[in-house]
Fold these 2 entries.
Entry 1:
Amino acid sequence: MTASATTLTPFGQDVLQGLSQPQPTLNSKWFYDERGNALFQQIMRCPEYYLTGAEAEIYRSCAPALLEELDGAPFDLIELGAGDGSKTQLLIEQFLAAGARFAYRPIDLNAAALAEVRDLIGLRWPKLEFQAIQGDYFEALDRLGRSTGSRRRLVLFPGANIGNFHPGEAVRMLERIRGFLAAGDLLLTGFDLKKDPAVILAAYNDPTGHTAAFNLNLLHRINRELEGNFDLDHWRHWETYNPATGAACSYLLPTSAQEVTIRALNQTFTFRAWQAIAVEISQKYSLREIEGMAEAAQFTCLRHLQDARGYFTDSLWRVPT
Ligand code: AVI
């Protein structure tokens, strides 16, 4: 008998649903358990994974452009997915040096990451108004409430996290964020740009194997948390990039036929040799496509802040009056 969906954790429910589809799928949002977070930190240090360095370069110099749009008014700096907060510290440094009046309110699912950010901020800038909000983006935004417009909001959505949603879902997500903002509020979103496919493929195929370990960790997680018996020696990470659609996709491939029992789901899944499990999309965009998304989500695209190589953009949008 299949485990009833109501007795399962959200992770279990999602795995059951994903692996039962004709094209088996696992959602990349489950990558980030403790080991997954540590592996992602290693990926961000890989020279091939250019995204982190490119965005840090942008954050190091983008404060004047942001402050100009805020017109000297006090504001809330809300960050969706704070991670270790290191890029945002680059921004905070510049905001404080320019005499800006603001509070920093990072949102993250990961309580440990938020505690680290709180300690860091407390140490460097003890007088800065700070509120960490733990939860998924919308739950946390709900807790903050809708913008009243009396205090401006600058929302940061960094790290190309938007790329982990299919383009249609991404627009719906941006529309939902807009629902928490008032006219004049700003959204700065990190998008990875279309470029030489070889550069993109190398970023998701580092020779040290951190990306492979990161993706395969999802099967480890199923084994650990849902009593699965995936045999990791028979699974491989595989990356593709389609320059026509801009989708970089990760798959997990069994090198021989596999029968996998997941006890918490009361289910056995069979996989033919090389039958892929789709695990992640990392969508790449052109500047034009980003402008189209801004329009579709009813924002005004103000400007693209790019790194010197033109690999990445943090696109600045405003809620129109
Ligand atoms: C978090 N996210 C933006 C990363 C990306 O580039 O899609 C996750 C990642 N997957 C493999 N490497 C990094």
Entry 2:
Amino acid sequence: RAKARGGNRFELADPELDERAITRHGLTTALPAALERGEFFIEYQPLVHMGDGRVHGAEALVRWSHPQHGVLGPDQFIPLAEHTGLIVPLGRWVLQEAVRQACDWQQHRTESGPLRINVNLSPAQLQHPGLVKDTVAVLERAGLEPGALCLEVTESALIGADEGLLQPLRQLAALGVDIALDDFGTGYSNLANLRRLPVSVLKLDRSFTKGMQQAPVDPVDLKIVEGIVSLAHSLELAVTVEGVETGVQADRLRELGCDTAQGWYYARPGPPDQLHTLSLADAI
Ligand code: C2E
Ligand code: MG
Ligand code: MG
Ligand code: MG
């Protein structure tokens, strides 16, 4: 980044920026070995039925327990893994581990329906030709019914998607796997386009519900969410809301007809036994 300027031939590069670049480089080169050494782990965040407060499943969220940097969140390494292609084996590991965990919950569960598992898919995984085959193999090996799995794809990954990209998702949906449109509302997609996508769930982005954390709730936010819920329901899509942090938010979103919710108000992402405990409790 050093560049010629005036009498000084070189200007010092921004030291912070350099440090970030070095860290990024270090993390990128460490990724493959980290996968082999088993440094990744998954936290599970409960998904709650708004109607009765019951836990109906969980979203798998990957973390990296880095030997020097401590626990890193997905925003710090998923983009790097995407860039280098490691996301494909990493994503496969997450799927395998999360599906295995879901089977484990199902075996121990006594009442209400079986717990479902949501797994995030990144754009590079969507484009990988082995996606359908790998997913089916993971489900079969674990013995989980496809209907217990929901794959989350961001709205922005599907904007302008051609049939070639949608085909694997259609195949998975035909097998009974649910497809959710993640971070919905941030991608400026054409609403009419929704009909064309093989999705059965909209995950409404946190930004829409921020204005509802405390009373008085922003009336425009209410109207927008109300409109999205009614559109989604008329297309027979279920609505999940992300980032529910307060009781005020939960009450309003329930009144607006949202089906399921996820957020710190209910539970933070945590170890798998949290799910087991919560799901056996009456409701949260
Ligand atoms: P996402 O799929 O939209 O996941 C929800 C994010 O919101 C998670 O962040 C979660 O910890 C956070 N969150 C949940 N409840 C609340 C709340 O009440 N308030 C606030 N402020 N935040 C809340 P996290 O775990 O850092 O994950 C970030 C993103 O990384 C995810 O966003 C997802 O896009 C991606 N990601 C996570 N795991 C995987 C994975 O296994 N594969 C891929 N491809 N992407 C992943
Ligand atoms: Mg997600
Ligand atoms: Mg999301
Ligand atoms: Mg989000």
